[in-house]
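=== Structure Prediction Worksheet ===
Name of assembly: unnamed complex
Input type: mixed (protein and possibly other molecules)
Chain count: two
Listed entries:
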Amino acid sequence: MKVIIVGGVAGGASCAARLRRLDEKAEILMVERGPYVSYANCGLPYHVGGSIEKESSLLVATEQTFRVQFAIDCRTRCEVTGISSKQKTVELKNHGTGEVTAEKYDKLVLSPGAAPIRPPLPGIDLPGIFSVRTVPDARSIREWLVRGAADLSGMNSHTGFQAPTKPKRAVVVGGGFIGLEMVENLVHRGLEVTLIEKLGQVMPPLDPEMARLVERYIVKHGVRLELDDGLAGFQQSADGSLEVLTSSGNRHPADIVILAIGVRPETTLAKMAGIEIGQRGGIRVDEHMRTSDPDIFAVGDAVEVRDFVTGQWTLIPLAGPANRQGRIAADVIAGRDSRFRGTQGTSICKIFEGVIAQTGASEKVLVRLGDKDFEKIYLFPNSHAGYYPGAKMLAIKVLFRKSDGRLLGAQVLGEEGVDKRIDSFAMAIQMGCTVYDLEEAELGYAPPFGSAKDPVNFAGMIAANVLRGDMPLCHWNSVENGFLLDVRNPPELAKESVPGALNIPLPQLRARLGELPRDRDIFVFCRSAQRSYFATRILLQNGYKARNISGSMLSRSMLGVA
Amino acid sequence: MKVIIVGGVAGGASCAARLRRLDEKAEILMVERGPYVSYANCGLPYHVGGSIEKESSLLVATEQTFRVQFAIDCRTRCEVTGISSKQKTVELKNHGTGEVTAEKYDKLVLSPGAAPIRPPLPGIDLPGIFSVRTVPDARSIREWLVRGAADLSGMNSHTGFQAPTKPKRAVVVGGGFIGLEMVENLVHRGLEVTLIEKLGQVMPPLDPEMARLVERYIVKHGVRLELDDGLAGFQQSADGSLEVLTSSGNRHPADIVILAIGVRPETTLAKMAGIEIGQRGGIRVDEHMRTSDPDIFAVGDAVEVRDFVTGQWTLIPLAGPANRQGRIAADVIAGRDSRFRGTQGTSICKIFEGVIAQTGASEKVLVRLGDKDFEKIYLFPNSHAGYYPGAKMLAIKVLFRKSDGRLLGAQVLGEEGVDKRIDSFAMAIQMGCTVYDLEEAELGYAPPFGSAKDPVNFAGMIAANVLRGDMPLCHWNSVENGFLLDVRNPPELAKESVPGALNIPLPQLRARLGELPRDRDIFVFCRSAQRSYFATRILLQNGYKARNISGSMLSRSMLGVA
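=== Predicted Assembly ===
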């Protein structure tokens, strides 16, 4: 059996290595268009920023590893230029020698990845505009950051000689993972950074109010953030520097531009092979990673996968799923019944001292799907016991099904313990956990690590309180016609108060019930919604129509209600 | 309805607060023998060590909070001195006034906790010997650490006057959680510390080979570790300092002694009430936290709970379960059907820069129960992507059922990302996860936080490889009669080699198969068992009887085989 694997990074490399382990006799040819296989593309922004100084650190396995250790015919700078699925052949072009050859396959695995989007805008090809996808991309950016425009031969020839100018101003276009990581790393290198994002928020998979918190970290580090403004084009100034033009008519001077406006599945080869492309523009595969041609498999960023929380087809250009898919394709080629279970969209991103993570469905996705059977809660617990040094507040949003309590999604932001909580939520969603299960989760507790009631337990308790009817909930966007009750203590109100709200500190509530209307909805809040929960319980049991405002003052500022 | 809650710390305080939320009209009396309610006893070692400087930081809620916020009759320094379960009364002694009163109850909740064991050994009552259970305990230790024996009026009267001597030498007796946390905190305060443990390992719930790794951290910080040596008694020297005598006949000089040899459920009240005590010496309760008397509930460290992994009754003196049990007792008293699901023994402990954590069943517990249907694996992955700065090696042991792949237990040690992995494993065990589920877990990955294949995924993959027959496994204790094959590269052997093992570096293996015996078991190893896995695959497919030695060289040093 001869298997050709196209693409030698995450999914392709995993597939090749796994296949060799399962089948010592298979003839395996892995071709990679670029100069490197199995490199850590997730590390590229950090290599640009310098925290990963050596380029070689990014090379997880080399061509040589594959040849010697796995007995795989591994060829870099080798591009597939044609596929005949009828004849089961591919045409290969060796970019080193220029030679074109044809190879027969029994099974073909496509792992071409996804390409950074480069819209055909005026000036898009000007020097100094970069994408961040490959090791050579990162190398070019690093060189540019050291030497600037002067390095381009001829570029400044009209001025005769120009001393190298080290770039000072960067514009990053696109506020997704790569954009944010590049923002952090360019700030880390001392550049003045502007981030331009077409949408009204950074990190599009997040719900916007959670993105607000991410934006605070960006702005806090001196980054100019331009939301709701699309890219219109580029111009070169007389001094060789760039200007980034936006749809609003703004012009942002830049010595370097990073394009991070998303990626598009590489489907050229798939189209060449005549296999099915899905609605989202990715290669359509079944749960065995098989395409519409039974002898062609596809894995990684180029394929569409099922989101198993929402049931929708989606594109998840992330390394974890790509690696798992590569393994599964290898299993199936080797005759096994392995299945990819789909994705739940778990992701995490460091942005300066902050960390933002997400798993499962977001509110906006549920709303888009017309799902009405969900509720959301906000909570702001400490990352670990408040009395142990270094505790930091987490901001957590949890989405769950109203009818049966099933956990649907979680978003967590903070500076410590974010990765831990998203992994607990992710494992919980994978296993079909309900909020009642979260209440009872027995997680590791000692003061440096958590609390006797971990934030994950708290999320479960709050959600279960809602579902059991113990704590009717509301949100700031639905309190307009109600009676607002603030149960904080007066010194807290001095800092920030809510117009029109009556203040009765919780300890006085039982004695002052007479001040409250019996015929109106009473929306109760405090700082974090814990005391207002206690107050809600008191009110409900005394016959008042009370609801707790989820997240209280802490969610209010996040939601931009103020 | 009148409910009396005995004990105002974790379980009792949770029960009281929850009950008030559920029933605004219940008459709730919470009595606490000590001076404080709802204090953070888990923080006491850190208060002694000084990282939690203020005692007040440990007081999570005060008597006043309970009175004012929860309308609970909360009485500290108030001890229950009698219970009549027939008359449904308790006798209370107010230690402030000396007054004794009787109170009727409809429901009684016992949350007396567990008391530090103080064996009746010679000299046990000498000054300078402390337990660590309460805020006053911590205060006494802190005072002693500042002023030493001279502070005790009369103690040194035979010498006339003696200047205060600040303690320099500490002996900690007992290497469990509290013992280890005290060791760290005393070292942190600059004391010379000796740790004496009766068993052959620290952290008794751990398997011994994992405890070895914990012991390395202790010894590395200059602590003298005396294992396999029991406490025999104490003597006072002429200068007022102590000597700790052990069963082996050793004498350890000490200016302060911390007794941390375990806790025993407080069952005095339970016996007074005539309710059932279990085989393990704790109060027996059903899943509703109800004792053998339908009107008496018990929660927290004093009760026996079911380990839901092993099905055995057990004592788990930890804050998380105590809090959950308190809530459940309140629910049931308020007429709800809440059930405690049992425990899985999740625990975590910081020991200097190391962290050790555990969840589910250990190997020794499974062996003790005669369970033969399990396998174990060791793995040593990086805490996050190796190419991103700061990655640290984790040591992970995973136990799983051979017949169906169900995850039974995990132990994780390392310096970074331990808490995260134990929480993922804990959530997985709670939800009945198999190792096949772990393979597919979609955890948060970005280079600062993990790897595209997280350690949790790796654990699943390795275990699944074993169960699918792809990687027959063995352990260092069962390789004696086999043929040992070392597939590391020669420079690695220079550091540490295994006598009698043949070295064939992995890249040469395919060409040198002829050197291997066809009729013998071949036990393959490398450094971390990854390359030896690849080698095992090559050998198996070529007809050899190969097994991979789990954990390879890294488990060998841990197991003390060398």
